[in-house]
Design goal:
Elements (H helix, E strand, L loop, with lengths): L2 H6 L12 H16 L2 H9 L4 H22 L10 H22 L5 H7 L3 H13 L5 H21 L6 H23 L5 H11 L1 H14 L6 H29 L1 H7 L3 H13 L7 H17 L3
Helix pairs in contact: 2-12, 3-12, 4-5, 4-10, 4-11, 4-12, 5-9, 5-10, 6-14, 7-9, 7-13, 8-15, 9-12, 10-12, 12-13, 13-15
Length: 305
Protein backbone atom coordinates (compact mmCIF):
# COMPACT_ATOMS: atom_id res chain seq x y z
CA UNK A 1 0.00 0.00 0.00
CA UNK A 2 1.43 3.40 -0.98
CA UNK A 3 1.20 6.63 0.94
CA UNK A 4 -1.09 7.96 -1.78
CA UNK A 5 -3.40 4.97 -1.37
CA UNK A 6 -3.58 5.65 2.34
CA UNK A 7 -4.32 9.30 1.78
CA UNK A 8 -7.02 8.79 -0.82
CA UNK A 9 -8.79 5.77 0.77
CA UNK A 10 -12.02 6.93 2.44
CA UNK A 11 -12.06 6.70 6.20
CA UNK A 12 -14.27 3.85 7.38
CA UNK A 13 -15.77 4.13 10.84
CA UNK A 14 -16.76 0.88 12.47
CA UNK A 15 -20.43 0.80 13.31
CA UNK A 16 -21.30 1.15 16.95
CA UNK A 17 -22.45 -1.99 18.60
CA UNK A 18 -26.02 -1.81 19.74
CA UNK A 19 -27.86 -3.87 22.28
CA UNK A 20 -29.30 -6.96 20.64
CA UNK A 21 -33.07 -6.72 20.19
CA UNK A 22 -33.45 -10.04 21.98
CA UNK A 23 -31.59 -8.79 25.04
CA UNK A 24 -33.44 -5.49 25.21
CA UNK A 25 -36.76 -7.27 24.68
CA UNK A 26 -35.99 -9.73 27.43
CA UNK A 27 -35.00 -6.89 29.76
CA UNK A 28 -38.24 -5.00 29.05
CA UNK A 29 -40.39 -8.10 29.56
CA UNK A 30 -38.52 -8.90 32.78
CA UNK A 31 -39.13 -5.37 34.08
CA UNK A 32 -42.80 -5.81 33.25
CA UNK A 33 -42.88 -9.03 35.27
CA UNK A 34 -41.22 -7.25 38.19
CA UNK A 35 -43.86 -4.52 38.20
CA UNK A 36 -46.67 -7.09 37.93
CA UNK A 37 -45.26 -9.04 40.88
CA UNK A 38 -46.35 -6.20 43.19
CA UNK A 39 -49.93 -6.25 41.87
CA UNK A 40 -51.41 -8.77 44.31
CA UNK A 41 -49.95 -7.13 47.44
CA UNK A 42 -51.15 -3.76 46.14
CA UNK A 43 -54.61 -5.21 45.51
CA UNK A 44 -54.68 -6.60 49.05
CA UNK A 45 -53.87 -3.13 50.34
CA UNK A 46 -56.64 -1.63 48.22
CA UNK A 47 -59.13 -4.18 49.58
CA UNK A 48 -58.36 -2.86 53.05
CA UNK A 49 -60.28 0.30 52.19
CA UNK A 50 -62.49 -0.54 49.20
CA UNK A 51 -64.84 -3.35 48.18
CA UNK A 52 -63.75 -5.64 45.33
CA UNK A 53 -66.07 -4.12 42.72
CA UNK A 54 -65.21 -0.57 43.78
CA UNK A 55 -61.47 -1.31 43.73
CA UNK A 56 -61.72 -2.84 40.26
CA UNK A 57 -63.83 -0.01 38.88
CA UNK A 58 -61.67 2.77 40.32
CA UNK A 59 -58.54 1.03 39.12
CA UNK A 60 -59.87 0.97 35.56
CA UNK A 61 -61.18 4.54 35.64
CA UNK A 62 -57.90 6.00 36.93
CA UNK A 63 -55.86 3.98 34.43
CA UNK A 64 -58.20 5.02 31.62
CA UNK A 65 -57.90 8.71 32.46
CA UNK A 66 -54.11 8.45 32.66
CA UNK A 67 -53.98 6.63 29.31
CA UNK A 68 -56.31 9.17 27.69
CA UNK A 69 -54.05 12.03 28.82
CA UNK A 70 -50.98 10.25 27.39
CA UNK A 71 -52.71 9.59 24.07
CA UNK A 72 -53.91 13.19 23.84
CA UNK A 73 -50.49 14.61 24.76
CA UNK A 74 -48.81 12.49 22.07
CA UNK A 75 -51.61 13.27 19.56
CA UNK A 76 -51.98 9.60 18.73
CA UNK A 77 -54.54 8.93 15.97
CA UNK A 78 -57.24 6.31 16.38
CA UNK A 79 -56.05 2.77 15.62
CA UNK A 80 -56.99 1.23 12.28
CA UNK A 81 -60.24 -0.70 12.15
CA UNK A 82 -58.37 -4.01 11.84
CA UNK A 83 -56.76 -3.46 15.25
CA UNK A 84 -59.95 -2.90 17.25
CA UNK A 85 -61.07 -6.55 17.61
CA UNK A 86 -57.72 -7.40 19.17
CA UNK A 87 -57.75 -4.31 21.37
CA UNK A 88 -61.17 -5.28 22.68
CA UNK A 89 -59.81 -8.73 23.57
CA UNK A 90 -57.01 -7.03 25.53
CA UNK A 91 -59.58 -4.79 27.20
CA UNK A 92 -61.87 -7.66 28.15
CA UNK A 93 -59.08 -9.92 29.38
CA UNK A 94 -56.48 -7.64 30.96
CA UNK A 95 -58.49 -4.55 31.94
CA UNK A 96 -61.83 -6.04 33.03
CA UNK A 97 -61.70 -9.82 33.54
CA UNK A 98 -58.35 -10.39 35.21
CA UNK A 99 -58.50 -7.50 37.72
CA UNK A 100 -62.06 -8.33 38.80
CA UNK A 101 -61.58 -12.09 39.11
CA UNK A 102 -58.29 -11.84 41.01
CA UNK A 103 -59.71 -9.16 43.30
CA UNK A 104 -62.68 -11.39 44.12
CA UNK A 105 -60.28 -14.27 44.79
CA UNK A 106 -58.09 -12.20 47.12
CA UNK A 107 -61.04 -11.63 49.45
CA UNK A 108 -60.65 -15.20 50.74
CA UNK A 109 -57.29 -16.38 49.41
CA UNK A 110 -53.87 -15.30 50.58
CA UNK A 111 -51.65 -13.28 48.28
CA UNK A 112 -49.01 -16.03 48.31
CA UNK A 113 -51.45 -18.77 47.33
CA UNK A 114 -53.09 -16.65 44.62
CA UNK A 115 -49.74 -15.73 43.13
CA UNK A 116 -48.69 -19.35 42.73
CA UNK A 117 -51.99 -20.34 41.11
CA UNK A 118 -51.51 -17.59 38.54
CA UNK A 119 -48.11 -19.14 37.81
CA UNK A 120 -49.89 -21.27 35.19
CA UNK A 121 -50.44 -18.08 33.15
CA UNK A 122 -47.24 -18.41 31.05
CA UNK A 123 -48.26 -21.81 29.74
CA UNK A 124 -51.77 -20.59 28.97
CA UNK A 125 -50.37 -17.52 27.18
CA UNK A 126 -47.99 -19.61 25.07
CA UNK A 127 -50.79 -22.02 24.15
CA UNK A 128 -53.21 -19.25 23.17
CA UNK A 129 -50.50 -17.51 21.15
CA UNK A 130 -49.62 -20.72 19.29
CA UNK A 131 -53.28 -21.26 18.40
CA UNK A 132 -53.79 -17.62 17.43
CA UNK A 133 -50.64 -17.02 15.37
CA UNK A 134 -49.91 -20.50 14.02
CA UNK A 135 -46.35 -20.44 15.42
CA UNK A 136 -45.19 -23.77 16.81
CA UNK A 137 -42.64 -23.73 19.63
CA UNK A 138 -40.22 -26.64 19.81
CA UNK A 139 -40.80 -29.78 21.86
CA UNK A 140 -38.11 -28.68 24.29
CA UNK A 141 -39.96 -25.41 24.85
CA UNK A 142 -43.24 -27.19 25.59
CA UNK A 143 -41.62 -29.74 27.88
CA UNK A 144 -39.97 -27.02 29.94
CA UNK A 145 -43.16 -24.95 30.03
CA UNK A 146 -45.24 -27.95 31.12
CA UNK A 147 -42.69 -28.81 33.79
CA UNK A 148 -42.88 -25.28 35.19
CA UNK A 149 -46.66 -25.32 35.13
CA UNK A 150 -46.73 -28.75 36.78
CA UNK A 151 -44.51 -27.49 39.58
CA UNK A 152 -46.83 -24.55 40.15
CA UNK A 153 -49.93 -26.75 40.10
CA UNK A 154 -48.37 -29.23 42.51
CA UNK A 155 -47.55 -26.37 44.85
CA UNK A 156 -51.14 -25.13 44.60
CA UNK A 157 -52.69 -28.50 45.36
CA UNK A 158 -50.30 -29.02 48.25
CA UNK A 159 -51.36 -25.72 49.78
CA UNK A 160 -55.09 -26.41 49.31
CA UNK A 161 -54.86 -30.08 50.43
CA UNK A 162 -55.82 -31.31 46.98
CA UNK A 163 -59.17 -29.52 46.83
CA UNK A 164 -59.39 -26.33 44.75
CA UNK A 165 -61.40 -23.60 46.46
CA UNK A 166 -63.83 -21.04 45.04
CA UNK A 167 -60.94 -18.57 45.01
CA UNK A 168 -58.93 -21.04 42.93
CA UNK A 169 -61.75 -21.19 40.38
CA UNK A 170 -61.76 -17.39 40.17
CA UNK A 171 -57.99 -17.47 39.65
CA UNK A 172 -58.05 -20.14 36.94
CA UNK A 173 -60.74 -18.20 35.08
CA UNK A 174 -58.62 -15.05 35.48
CA UNK A 175 -55.54 -16.63 33.98
CA UNK A 176 -57.49 -17.88 30.95
CA UNK A 177 -58.92 -14.47 30.05
CA UNK A 178 -55.60 -12.79 30.82
CA UNK A 179 -53.71 -15.25 28.60
CA UNK A 180 -55.96 -14.28 25.69
CA UNK A 181 -55.32 -10.60 26.40
CA UNK A 182 -51.57 -11.08 26.68
CA UNK A 183 -51.32 -13.08 23.47
CA UNK A 184 -53.48 -10.65 21.49
CA UNK A 185 -51.67 -7.64 22.90
CA UNK A 186 -48.30 -9.13 22.00
CA UNK A 187 -49.52 -9.74 18.45
CA UNK A 188 -50.83 -6.18 18.00
CA UNK A 189 -47.64 -4.72 19.47
CA UNK A 190 -45.87 -5.70 16.26
CA UNK A 191 -47.92 -3.03 14.48
CA UNK A 192 -48.58 -0.50 17.26
CA UNK A 193 -46.27 0.70 20.04
CA UNK A 194 -46.88 -1.34 23.18
CA UNK A 195 -47.94 1.65 25.27
CA UNK A 196 -50.62 2.52 22.72
CA UNK A 197 -52.00 -1.03 22.80
CA UNK A 198 -52.70 -0.96 26.54
CA UNK A 199 -53.66 2.74 26.46
CA UNK A 200 -56.42 2.15 23.91
CA UNK A 201 -57.50 -0.98 25.78
CA UNK A 202 -58.06 0.84 29.08
CA UNK A 203 -59.71 3.78 27.30
CA UNK A 204 -62.07 1.37 25.54
CA UNK A 205 -62.99 -0.10 28.93
CA UNK A 206 -63.78 3.31 30.49
CA UNK A 207 -67.58 3.10 29.97
CA UNK A 208 -67.67 -0.26 31.79
CA UNK A 209 -65.27 0.70 34.58
CA UNK A 210 -67.03 4.04 35.12
CA UNK A 211 -70.43 2.31 35.36
CA UNK A 212 -68.98 -0.30 37.72
CA UNK A 213 -67.60 2.42 39.97
CA UNK A 214 -70.87 4.38 39.97
CA UNK A 215 -72.87 1.30 40.97
CA UNK A 216 -70.36 -0.14 43.46
CA UNK A 217 -69.48 2.97 45.46
CA UNK A 218 -72.92 3.35 47.09
CA UNK A 219 -73.21 -0.41 47.71
CA UNK A 220 -69.78 -1.12 49.17
CA UNK A 221 -68.55 0.82 52.22
CA UNK A 222 -65.26 2.60 51.60
CA UNK A 223 -62.72 3.36 54.32
CA UNK A 224 -59.70 4.62 52.38
CA UNK A 225 -56.51 4.75 54.40
CA UNK A 226 -52.95 5.41 53.33
CA UNK A 227 -52.25 1.77 52.36
CA UNK A 228 -55.57 1.41 50.55
CA UNK A 229 -54.96 4.54 48.50
CA UNK A 230 -51.36 3.53 47.79
CA UNK A 231 -52.49 0.11 46.64
CA UNK A 232 -55.21 1.59 44.44
CA UNK A 233 -52.76 4.07 42.91
CA UNK A 234 -50.23 1.33 42.14
CA UNK A 235 -52.76 -1.01 40.54
CA UNK A 236 -54.12 1.83 38.39
CA UNK A 237 -50.89 3.52 37.29
CA UNK A 238 -48.52 0.53 37.14
CA UNK A 239 -50.39 -2.78 37.16
CA UNK A 240 -53.03 -1.56 34.71
CA UNK A 241 -50.96 0.73 32.50
CA UNK A 242 -47.23 1.30 33.07
CA UNK A 243 -46.28 -2.34 33.51
CA UNK A 244 -48.07 -3.27 30.30
CA UNK A 245 -46.06 -0.70 28.36
CA UNK A 246 -42.87 -2.59 29.26
CA UNK A 247 -44.50 -5.99 28.90
CA UNK A 248 -45.96 -5.52 25.42
CA UNK A 249 -42.76 -3.91 24.08
CA UNK A 250 -40.81 -6.88 25.38
CA UNK A 251 -43.25 -9.39 23.85
CA UNK A 252 -43.10 -7.62 20.51
CA UNK A 253 -39.30 -7.91 20.52
CA UNK A 254 -38.80 -11.53 21.61
CA UNK A 255 -42.16 -13.13 20.84
CA UNK A 256 -45.12 -14.05 22.99
CA UNK A 257 -44.13 -17.66 23.82
CA UNK A 258 -40.65 -16.80 25.05
CA UNK A 259 -41.72 -13.65 26.90
CA UNK A 260 -44.60 -15.46 28.57
CA UNK A 261 -42.23 -17.92 30.22
CA UNK A 262 -40.48 -15.09 32.06
CA UNK A 263 -43.69 -14.82 34.04
CA UNK A 264 -42.92 -18.13 35.72
CA UNK A 265 -40.80 -15.99 38.04
CA UNK A 266 -43.70 -13.69 38.93
CA UNK A 267 -45.37 -15.87 41.59
CA UNK A 268 -42.03 -16.38 43.31
CA UNK A 269 -41.37 -12.66 43.41
CA UNK A 270 -44.87 -12.08 44.73
CA UNK A 271 -44.21 -14.62 47.49
CA UNK A 272 -41.29 -12.49 48.63
CA UNK A 273 -43.38 -9.30 48.62
CA UNK A 274 -46.20 -11.12 50.46
CA UNK A 275 -43.79 -11.93 53.27
CA UNK A 276 -42.08 -8.54 53.35
CA UNK A 277 -45.09 -6.28 52.79
CA UNK A 278 -48.01 -8.31 54.16
CA UNK A 279 -46.24 -10.47 56.76
CA UNK A 280 -47.71 -13.63 55.25
CA UNK A 281 -46.21 -17.04 56.01
CA UNK A 282 -43.87 -18.37 53.31
CA UNK A 283 -44.77 -21.99 52.45
CA UNK A 284 -41.99 -24.49 53.02
CA UNK A 285 -42.27 -25.81 49.45
CA UNK A 286 -41.62 -22.36 47.95
CA UNK A 287 -37.80 -22.68 47.65
CA UNK A 288 -38.10 -26.03 45.85
CA UNK A 289 -40.71 -24.59 43.49
CA UNK A 290 -38.43 -21.60 42.91
CA UNK A 291 -35.52 -23.76 41.77
CA UNK A 292 -37.69 -25.82 39.41
CA UNK A 293 -39.33 -22.74 37.91
CA UNK A 294 -36.08 -20.87 37.38
CA UNK A 295 -34.58 -23.90 35.60
CA UNK A 296 -37.66 -24.05 33.37
CA UNK A 297 -37.26 -20.36 32.54
CA UNK A 298 -33.65 -20.92 31.52
CA UNK A 299 -34.62 -23.80 29.23
CA UNK A 300 -37.54 -21.97 27.56
CA UNK A 301 -35.37 -18.93 26.89
CA UNK A 302 -32.91 -21.09 24.96
CA UNK A 303 -35.39 -23.33 23.19
CA UNK A 304 -36.18 -22.82 19.51
CA UNK A 305 -39.51 -21.11 18.76
Amino acid sequence: MTAQDSATRPLTIAPRRSVAPGRSGTALAALGVLTFSFSFPATSWALGGFGPWTATGLRGVLAGLLAALCLAAARVPLPARRHWPGLLVVSAGCVLGFPLLTTLALRTSSTAHSAVVIGVLPLATAAVSALRTGRRPSRTFWCAALAGAAAVLAFTLLQSHGRPTTADLYLFAALLVCAAGYAEGGRISRDLPGWQVIAWAVVAALPVTALTTALALPAEPAHPGVKALAGLAYTAAVSQFGGFVLWYRGMAAIGVPRASQLQLAQPLLTLVWAVLLLAEHLPAAAPVTAVVVLVCIAVTQRARV
